[in-house]
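We treat protein structure as text, and this decision shapes the records that our systems exchange. The remainder of this section carries one protein's record, kept here as part of the documentation:
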Amino acid sequence: MPYDYDAQSILKRLMDGLQSDVNRLQGGFCMDNLQAVAEELARYRAMILEYAVEQTMLDTADGEYLDRKALEYNEERLDGEADDVFRARLLNKIRQPITSGNANHYVYWARQVPGVGAARCIPTWDGPGTVKVVILSAAMAEPDDALIAAVRSYVETQRPVGASVTISKAVPVDVTINVKATLEAGSNPDEVREQIAAAIQSYCTEIAFDLTTLSYHKVGDLMFAVTGVADISSYTLNGKTASVTMTAEQFARLKEVVLDAS
C-alpha cells in the first residue's frame, strides 16, 4: 500500500508501532524523540527525492549522471571536460539539428575537438562548395594556431566529399569604454574600474558567437549594477554612444575601461 511521507504521517506510523500507551504521552521523552525523527525523515526524503529528480534532467544532472544522460543522445564527455562545458555542447547538438554536412554538422565537428569553446559555420563563403568554420577557444577568445590545426585535421576526416573547408580564427573587436560616474562615498575608483571591466568582459564572453551586437544599453546596465557606482552621467563605446556591431567572424573583447570618477 502507498504511504504518505510528510512528518505527521511518518510520526503516526511510528506511534502505531509503540507497545505502550505511556510512550504516546505528548511531551514525554519517547514522543519528543519520535517527533524529531519523523521531521528529519521527512526532510531527508524530500532532499533525496529532489536530488534524484535533478539527476534525471539534462539541465541539472552532474558528474556520472550527466554522462549517463548524454548517452541517450549518443554523446560522450571529452577528456577533462567540465560539466557545464559538456552540457552546453550537448544542448547545442540537441537545439541545432544535424543532417549530413549541413552548417550545424560543421559546428558539431569543430566542437568535438578539445579546446574549442564555440564555432560558427559560414556556408558558400567563397562560392559553391566552400565552407568556412570560425573558431573560438575554450576561454571564448582567439584560438592559437595549434587548435586551428587540430580542428582542420579532424574536420577533414568528417566532411562530405567535395567540400572545400577553411578553418579560421575568430577575430576580436576591441572595445574601449569611457565612463563618467559618481561613486558612493568611500569607494575606491581603481577597484570600481576593475569591477566594471570584469563585468563587461564576462558579458562579452557570454555573448561570443551568440550575439553579433554588444548592446550600448546593456553595457550601461552592467556598469550601474557594479558596487560603488552611484550614478553614471555619460559613457561611450569606442568613442560612440551606440552599440558595437560585429560580423559573423568577430567577437567583442574589452580592451580598456577609462573611468572619470567623482
Summary: The CA atoms of residues 86 and 169 lie 22 Å apart. The chain has eight helices and eight strands. The radius of gyration is 28 Å. The mean pLDDT is 88.
